Amino acid sequence: MPAALVFMILALLEAPTPKQPSALLKGSVFALHVTLNMLSYAAFAVACALSLLYLTVGKALKSRASKTLAGPTSRLPTLGYLERATRTSLGVGVVTLVVGLGFGFYWASQVWSGQGLKWGLDPKVWMAVATLIFYIVVFVRARRGAAPVTTARLSVIGFLLVLFSYTAVNLLVSRLHVFA
Fold first, then answer.
1. Cα dist. 172→13, 98, 176, 179 in Å?
2. Least packed by Cβ within 10 Å: which of 89, 113, 168, 173?
3. What angle do CA 97, 98, 100 make, to 5 degrees?
4. How far is residue 137 from each of residues 86, 112, 121, 158, measured CA to CA in Å?
């Protein structure tokens, strides 16, 4: 929280010159695309947090002879609950990413209709599709009874993929997803 507060204050002090939003950024289809993709990233962040908690609680239980936690740690959710909550969060993330990408593909085909599939070559699009495929595999494996520890580890790795996609690819490589 302190780091977030510092960055917010620095951003407010910078006071950029106000710009009119591009005509490309208007419309309900674009708004749905962005909103659903952010919701999917948030669901994957929740799945990652639940997975980290699952791994931590599982490790603590494994190290204890009684297989129960005592003290304040006894209030932590059970491994079964964490597993179900992770699967649910992964499911929400996959569905919202599919729909969000669908709206994005539709919007891009309308906006850049005369330019062919130029938008389809953007690294951000490829990374989003790769992230979706990864999470579909993780979700299907989890629904079919894969080891919860494996699902938790893959969920954490997947969120690192999301962070890489959202930061490095979006800021350094992508040319079409720069709307500032």
1. 25, 24, 11, 13
2. 113
3. 60
4. 14, 31, 23, 11
Q: Which residue did the predictor score with more confidence, 4 or 159?
A: 159
Mind giving me the DSSP string for 55-94? HHHHHHHHH-SSSS--GGGGGSPPHHHHHHHHHHHHHHHH
Return the biggest CA–CA distance within the chain: 67
Q: Which of 157, 27, 173, 39 is nearest to 98 (CA)?
A: 39
pTM of whole model > 0.85? Answer: no
Please return the burial class of 35, using the count of CB atoms within 10 Å of its CB with bins 0-12, 13-18 and 19+: middle
Helix (H) or strand (E) holding 148: helix 148-164
Sign for the CA dihedral angle at 108, 157, 78, 137 comes to positive
Looking at every residue in the chain, the average pLDDT score rounds to: 83
Region 131-139: mean pLDDT is 92
Q: What is the pLDDT of residue 124?
A: 82
pLDDT at 65: 58
Provide the sign of the torsion angle of the four alpha carbons 21, 24, 28, 32, taken in this order: negative
Cα first-last separation, the chain: 26
Task: Quickly state the pLDDT bin for 180 (edges 50, 70, 90).
Answer: very low
Q: Quote the radius of gyration of the chain (alpha carbons, Å).
A: 20
